[in-house]
Amino acid sequence: MDYPAFFDQVPRIALRDPLSEFLGAFPDGVVEYGYLDAVKLAGHSCPTVAGAYVMSAKALEALYGDGLPERGGIRVEFRDDAARGVTGVIAGVVSLITGARQDDGFKGIAGRFDRRALLRFNVPGPGEIRFTRLDTGTAVDVAFNAASVPPDVAMQSLLQRSLVPGATQTDQAEFARLWQDRVRRILVEHRDRVVRVAPAPTT
């Protein structure tokens, strides 16, 4: 499978998943996700998918420090409705990484490993997303600013030319290259400044 080389340059996210360990999927309980996993889930690579991935990574770093985050042990609350803008796309990536689900999630085994009601929407807050550890109640509010890494000035005209009948492969290829280069800059060059993480009140 061919994909942009920078996907493999993005730091991977490692977590401990007690359910996977219990059922033997990963005997040591450790599971890793990379940016390529997020792209496969979303079906494309864009600033929104990149933002969802890096917001998750930065939130988990803030909540767990050098320790392994616990997949399924994190509540995720979105300020906006799932159907508003790109919230649903972001939620899909965040859910993949954290294991948080709505009522359609895994129901658990004998009261353990329940993944339901951990993904919520329309929850007021100062950030776009609040991540909360279930074991300690520690929480962080997270927001992503894609505008801090602007697109190449040629992208808009290339996009317009690529969408009309008779568009050339050259224009389409150059648009795609510049599009992915912006994603690369977000994830590789500027990942420490595109996301704002702030402590939230403990619950």
Can you give me a brief rundown of this structure?
Helices cover 36% and strands 16% of the residues.
The CATH architecture can be given as 2-Layer Sandwich
Q: What class do helices, strands and sheet pairing give? A: alpha+beta
Helix and strand run: EHEHHEHEEEHHE
Number of strands: 7
Question: What average pLDDT do the residues reach?
Answer: 96
Radius of gyration: 18 Å
Biggest sheet, strands in spatial order? 4-3-5-6-7
CATH class reads Alpha Beta
The name CATH uses for the topology is 60s Ribosomal Protein L30, Chain: A
The largest sheet is:
5 strands, mixed
The rounded distance between the terminal residues' Cα atoms is 44 Å
Write the topology of this structure:
Blueprint: E1 13-16, H1 18-22, E2 30-33, H2 35-42, H3 47-64, E3 74-78, H4 87-98, E4 119-120, E5 129-133, E6 139-144, H5 155-163, H6 169-189, E7 195-200
Parallel strand pairs: 3-4
Antiparallel strand pairs: 1-2, 3-5, 5-6, 6-7
What does it look like?
With 203 residues, the chain is of the alpha+beta class. It has helices at 18-22, 35-42, 47-64, 87-98, 155-163, 169-189; strands at residues 13-16, 30-33, 74-78, 119-120, 129-133, 139-144, 195-200. α5 crosses α6. The chain is globular and about 60 Å long.
Give the key terms:
203 residues, alpha+beta, 60s Ribosomal Protein L30, Chain: A, two-stranded antiparallel sheet, 6 helices, 36% helix
